[in-house]
Design goal:
alpha+beta; Dipeptide-binding Protein, domain 3; eleven-stranded mixed sheet; 18 helices; 19 strands; disordered N terminus
Length: 547
């Protein structure tokens, strides 16, 4: 895209507006806006078909260009990738592959055996050549997520009818997880073409458990694929009702039983109301820890944050439990690392190093840095104006610091429109900012490399080119770069886990970012609906749900 952002910054910004919508809409639960006439009262009236309600409309269903939650959730249910995750977990398992890949000693060549009993929705047989076509199209057509494969793959070859060989540019331990990205699915060579910018946004021809039969601005219809190679869906199909950017209509549709399942995006008051209803037995609430992490960015090139003691003092001062209770209404989870708790590599390094709301340690560090009520550390905190949640977080930080530190630290909340915010971040204009990160693929690497890695820089000047620069921290550490490179090449899981522990300890010592909370995901289902799950990737496997 010619948007002026690096791929890393586009990854960061792509869901910012969606998350602001998820947590920042101020729409009362008693809003009387009605649901569309054709949806009201229809839940349960279509046999074993299920109605899924959401506010998120897919921009495109072309897997080579889809890079938003809404589209990827649909593609996940329409297509198959070489590898996928056991529903509800971060555990990889084969899908179109029949086994995990055989990896060469140098870590560059992946040989993948493929299923022989698969056909596309248009009847075209699935082969290694078809999978090669799909991956090459993903790279060549240049869609929003193209960099995920383009940056790591050297070439893709069909080395037998049902054997695929992929050669990487350099070793990358997380590569199988990248192949589980929903957009890296197989598509029919008869229905798509390879060419830069050649996309088919309104159709989908893959190998998954459902076929797409209707796609409009407010409706999608998914029918079970009769020749699906795997276990047939437990339902007779999915009707998706899209209440575009209208949380009140989604809330009303669910409470009046116009939809069977409601997911993304409801505001905190509405979620709390539905949680209360679930506790009373009116419907079901399915909860799962999310993998979106929220944090404060600290620019090490701007005073007073150029002093490590000041960054460490803020890390000690932050009261995550207060933020979760006062701002998130208990609908988040305090986070002490950039790696979320869904991974066994999670290490609460900030809690171990600083505790939580450790006011005395904050005072000590600030005094060591030369700050006092008479000589305060003034720190502007920036965030997009559309995010009410971040506004409340900034105000909470401001008030807590004023109360506990007598003015030694003075946070100054500032807002700006989203486009300007993202532009200014990479230019180093903001001393501090409130941000979040949604993973591209489910591996701990995707929570550290895109935030901490630096391609060019020095200890004195910080990062001048690379992930840390584009994310606004300008963090540079030769030790951190070495740890990230080493874990990317590690083949032993235990050794790799130790490296991630070292990365998180280094993060807590240097404090380029302060983790604050991770999302808690909620999906609501009517009392008679079973089998609803949320994946850590925020996708819902529709085929498991039934009435």
């Amino acid at each position: 895209m010619n948007d002026g952002f690096t791929p890393a910054l586009r990854r960061w910004g792509r869901f910012f507006g969606l998350f602001a919508l998820c947590l920042g809409l101020i729409v009362g639960c008693n809003n009387t806006s009605s649901t569309p006439d054709d949806a009201a009262g229809t839940a349960g009236a279509t046999g074993d078909r299920l109605i899924f309600g959401t506010t998120l409309a897919p921009r495109t269903l072309d897997p080579a260009d889809s890079y938003e939650i809404a589209g990827l959730n649909v593609i996940y249910n329409l297509g198959n990738t070489l590898y996928t995750y056991t529903p509800g977990t971060t555990e990889l398992q084969p899908s179109l592959a029949t086994a995990m890949p055989t990896i060469s000693d140098d870590g560059l060549t992946y040989t993948i055996p493929l299923r022989e009993d698969v056909s596309f929705h248009d009847g075209t047989p699935f082969t290694a050549a078809a999978m090669q076509f799909s991956l090459e199209r993903f790279i060549t057509n240049g869609g929003k997520p193209a960099f995920l494969l383009a940056d790591v793959i050297e070439r893709v070859e069909a080395t037998d009818d049902y054997e695929l060989t992929i050669t990487l540019q350099q070793p990358f331990a997380a590569f199988p997880s990248v192949l589980a990205f929903a957009g890296a699915c197989a598509v029919s060579p008869e229905a798509y073409s390879i060419g830069e910018g050649e996309f088919s946004p309104n159709e989908f021809v893959g190998t998954g458990p459902y076929q797409l039969t209707e796609f409009s601005s407010d409706t999608l219809r998914l029918e079970p694929f009769a020749d699906y190679w795997g276990e047939a869906p437990a339902n007779d199909g999915i009707d998706m009702q899209i209440y575009t950017d209208n949380a009140a209509n989604l809330f009303n549709a669910f409470t009046t039983q116009a939809v069977d399942i409601a997911y993304q995006s409801l505001d905190p008051d509405q979620i709390q109301s539905l949680l209360d209803g679930a506790e009373a037995g009116d419907w079901q609430a399915i909860e799962a820890p999310g993998t979106a992490v929220n944090f404060m960015v600290l620019n090490r090139n701007q005073a007073p944050l150029d002093q490590p003691e000041v960054r460490q003092a803020i890390a000690a001062l932050v009261n995550r439990k207060l933020i979760n209770e006062r701002v998130l209404q208990g609908q988040g989870e305090p986070l002490y690392s950039l790696i979320p708790t869904a991974f066994d590599t999670y290490e609460p390094s900030f809690e171990k190093t600083y505790g939580d709301a450790n006011v005395e340690e904050a005072k000590r560090l600030l005094a060591e840095a030369g700050y006092s009520p008479e000589n305060p550390a003034v720190i502007p905190i920036w965030f997009p104006s559309a995010s009410t949640t971040r506004s409340l977080v900034a105000q909470t930080l401001q008030a807590f610091a004023a109360q506990e530190l007598a003015g030694t630290v003075q946070f100054e909340p500032n807002t700006v429109d989203g486009a300007t915010f993202f532009k200014n971040i990479q230019e180093g204009i903001y001393p501090a900012a409130l941000s979040n990160w949604y993973p591209d693929f489910l591996d701990p690497d995707n929570f550290v490399q895109p935030l901490l890695d630096c391609d060019q820089g020095t200890p004195e000047a910080g990062c001048s080119a690379g992930s840390a620069q584009s994310q606004g921290s300008f963090y540079y550490s030769e030790a951190m770069n070495a740890l990230i490179d080493e874990q990317r090449q590690a083949t032993d899981p235990a050794a790799r886990k130790e490296l991630f522990t070292a990365i998180q300890e280094q993060l807590a010592a240097d404090v380029p970012y302060i983790p604050l909370w991770q999302n808690q995901e909620y999906v609501f289902a009517q009392a008679g609906v079973e089998g609803v799950r949320i994946n850590p990737s925020q996708n819902i496997p529709f085929w498991l749900a039934t009435r």
